[in-house]
Amino acid sequence: MSQITVVVTKKTVEAVDIASFELASVDGKPLPPFSAGSHIDVHVADGLTRQYSLCNDPAETHRYLIGVLRDPASRGGSVAMHDKVREGDKLRISAPKNHFALEHGTAHALLLAGGIGVTPVLCMAERLAQVGAEFDMHYCTRAPERTAFMERIRSSPFANRVNFHFDTGAQEQKLDLAAVLAASAEGTHLYVCGPKGFIDFVLAGARAAGWSEDRLHLEYFGAAPQEGQVSEAFEVQIASTGQRIAIPAGRPVTEVLAANGIEIPISCEQGICGTCITRVLEGEPDHRDMYFTDAEKAKNDQFTPCCSRAKSPLLVLDI
């Protein structure tokens, strides 16, 4: 995977436990272009790569801007970004990738952000405003002091299209999802990003209101804990060599394969990004990712070895 070296030109506290990082090329040349909803892989330290959505105007080529929440349940990435990365530091990143793109040509867009999920949604708002498209944005957070980019939004040309909702605020200012959905124009496309609970709440409401799946677009920024799922041992077979490798209970497939000299590219390690997708030639995967659709999972011809496992005793992998 190609990498770009960038320098941290600015680090800003945006809200409680949220910092933004402005990244620029080390030689002053334009960075690769990106579209609204894109993210980059940031190599925080050796063996530690995390994904962050770009939240600046896609028309900008001189910088990337990311927002990072300091997660108390961090596996190392967000804490390292907050505590160790400083202005002037150099980081290795990937070129932008987009699994959460805007559907251009739609009459209206409804943008819903929960917490740090605002980062790709804010980028979408910038783009939609720039091209003169119709949209409404709803931004839900725990409290005003935990609301990143609030002043930027309030001073933007599209400020009148954004509604803030705080858990700590009065009842009348909280998100009335049913009313928002009912007021949306026919054919509106919905884009939602945030914690799994928030996304599930929004999608359930939209589906109950009769919204078709082709109008629902989402991106998780973190996987929910896998509760009540049994982690049993199984085997994988490498199709090119016939080698069989035992995968113990509780150990990721990617980790065990790496210990046996077989490296599969990984990034999020939570089944969100799709970096590690591997073809399955035989066997039935136990899909535990948030990347594939239900229809894609039903095919059982690929899986995410960073987090998924097997329902069958053996998986034959196209490696």
Core attributes:
Rossmann fold; globular; five-stranded parallel β-sheet; alpha/beta; 319 residues; Elongation Factor Tu (Ef-tu), domain 3; six-stranded antiparallel β-sheet; 3 domains; Ubiquitin-like (UB roll)
Descriptive account of the structure:
This protein is an alpha/beta fold and 319 residues long. It has three domains: 4-93, Beta Barrel (Elongation Factor Tu (Ef-tu), domain 3); 108-220, Nucleotide-binding domain of ferredoxin-NADP reductase (FNR) module (Rossmann fold, 3-Layer(aba) Sandwich); 234-317, Beta-grasp domain (Ubiquitin-like (UB roll), Roll). The protein has seven helices and 18 strands. The strands form four sheets. The chain has a six-stranded antiparallel β-sheet, with helices on one face. It has a five-stranded parallel β-sheet with strand order 9-8-7-10-11, sandwiched between helices. The two termini are 17 Å apart. The relative contact order is 0.12. The mean pLDDT is 90.
Largest sheet: 6 strands, antiparallel
The CATH architecture of the largest domain is 3-Layer(aba) Sandwich
Strands across the major sheet, in which order?
4-3-6-1-2-5
Q: Structural class, judged by helices and strands?
A: alpha/beta
**Radius of gyration, Cα only, in angstroms?**
21 Å
Number of separate strands: 18
Low-confidence stretches: none
Average of the residue pLDDT scores = 90
CATH superfamily of the largest domain: Nucleotide-binding domain of ferredoxin-NADP reductase (FNR) module
Q: What percentage of the residues does DSSP assign to strands (E)?
A: 25-35%
How are helices and strands ordered from N to C?
Answer: EEEEEHEEHEHEHEHEEEHEEHEEE
Please tell me the total number of domains: 3
CATH topology of the largest domain: Rossmann fold
- CATH class of the largest domain reads Alpha Beta
Helical residue percent band: 10-25%
General form = globular
Q: How large is the count of helical segments?
A: 7
What is the straight-line distance between the termini?
17 Å
